[in-house]
Write a structure and sequence with these properties.
Shape: elongated
Number of strands: 24
Protein name: DUF1735 domain-containing protein
Domain BT-3987-like N-terminal: 72-164
InterPro entries: BT_3987-like_N
Radius of gyration: 25 Å
CATH architecture of the largest domain: Sandwich
Largest sheet: 9 strands, antiparallel
CATH class of the largest domain: Mainly Beta
CATH topology of the largest domain: Immunoglobulin-like
Number of helices: 4
CATH superfamily of the largest domain: hypothetical protein (bacova_03559)
Distance between the termini: 11 Å
Order of helices and strands: HEEEHEHEEEEEEEEEEHEEEEEEEEEE
Organism: Hufsiella arboris
Low-confidence stretches: 5-34
Helix content: under 10%
Pfam family, one: BT_3987-like_N
Length: 335
């Protein structure tokens, strides 16, 4: 993701082992009875979890804490690592990443973790008994509670007590788990095509201003089981449609298409404006029936023609100011 002109701007296991030397059982070099016992978060400090729309209960593995013992004596000790729930980490993540994650409500999940992980008044204790080196934090997530699929949730923790163990260099005190829903159209796409603005022939498709960075990459972000909104994380940055304004980059304010699909046929059945239908500046979106307007599930390619209407500028019905005719080719899953 290039962010070229960004204006503003997500199978665990537990084992008990016996061993004769460190190099057979742990990462690192044989140290005999010397060395340092480390603790680490296996998945890193930022963990992203994506789900398709669901209404049943799903088991979600969030993260694992691993105790990498320096020697037999350390492995046979008992250690309790303390984690506090910390909503402030979510707030900072939102500020740093222009995101809108909310803390996952307690009613959405129940604990389903390994034995020895116990809830406290402020968070969780991870108790490593003799011989244990991995603890897996898991929850049962109730999809029936997740009614608004445009909402994104998070759980965040801060490690407040390592109980004498040493965190690895890559282990942060903070852990944030990010939960998002994705429908089958969600992803990052390479977009080619044309754009015509009847008010100014110098306004053309954004690819015309990108040069060697063309074609543009745009995201489809899930907002319901059948709808995705366009998000530009490549050029403009945000819920905007960029364009070439006579050799300079620009975008249409208060306008961004929301594509609605028929999941049975994968046809695009409507296009509306993310900012309102119409927005205060009278801009609205409409599917142009002259287009193919189809998502091909096998190739994950979308062919679509859509319009921006603006009666305050184009006063003659049907008030179409801009028409895009595009092909969206899937590149990768959105991270």
């Amino acid at each position: 993701m290039k962010n070229i002109l960004k204006y503003t701007f997500f199978g665990a296991f537990a084992l008990l082992i016996s061993f004769s030397c460190r190099k057979d059982a742990f990462e690192g070099t044989e140290t005999g009875d010397s060395g340092t016992t480390h603790i680490k978060v296996e998945e890193g400090g930022e963990i992203k979890q994506f789900f398709g729309p669901f209404t049943d209960i799903k088991l979600a593995h969030l993260f694992s804490l691993r105790r990498d013992a320096a020697n037999n004596a350390d492995l046979n000790k008992t250690n309790t690592i303390k984690l506090e729930s910390n909503a402030g980490i979510i707030e900072k993540y939102n500020e740093d990443n222009d995101e809108s994650f909310e803390e996952l409500p307690a009613s959405f999940y129940t604990l389903a973790s390994d034995a020895g992980i116990n809830k406290t008044s402020t968070g969780y204790d991870f108790l490593f008994s003799s011989g244990e080196f991995s603890k897996n934090f898991k929850i049962k997530l109730d999809g029936s509670k997740w009614v608004d699929l445009s909402k994104k949730y998070s759980l965040a923790f801060r490690i407040t007590d390592y109980n004498g163990l040493t965190p690895t260099a890559a282990t942060s005190d903070s852990i944030i788990v990010l939960f998002s829903i994705k429908n089958k159209y969600d992803g990052v796409y390479e977009v080619t095509g044309t754009m015509i603005d009847v008010t100014n022939p110098a306004y053309t498709h954004v690819n015309d201003v990108l040069g060697a960075d063309a074609p543009t990459h745009l995201q489809l972000r899930t907002i319901s089981p059948t709808k995705c909104v366009l998000y530009d994380d490549y050029y403009i940055g945000g819920y905007f449609v960029g364009f070439n304004a006579n050799g300079s980059g620009s975008y249409y304010g208060a306008f961004c298409p929301v594509f609605e699909f028929d999941p049975a046929t994968d046809k695009i059945i409507s296009v509306t404006n993310y900012y309102g239908q119409p927005a205060p500046n009278t801009r609205s979106a409409k599917l142009d029936p002259s287009g193919i307007n189809q998502f091909d599930a096998e190739s994950r390619t979308m062919s679509v023609t859509y319009n921006m209407l603006q009666p305050s500028v184009v006063t003659t019905p049907p008030n179409i100011r801009v028409t895009w005719q595009e092909v969206w080719k899937f590149i990768e899953e959105r991270q």
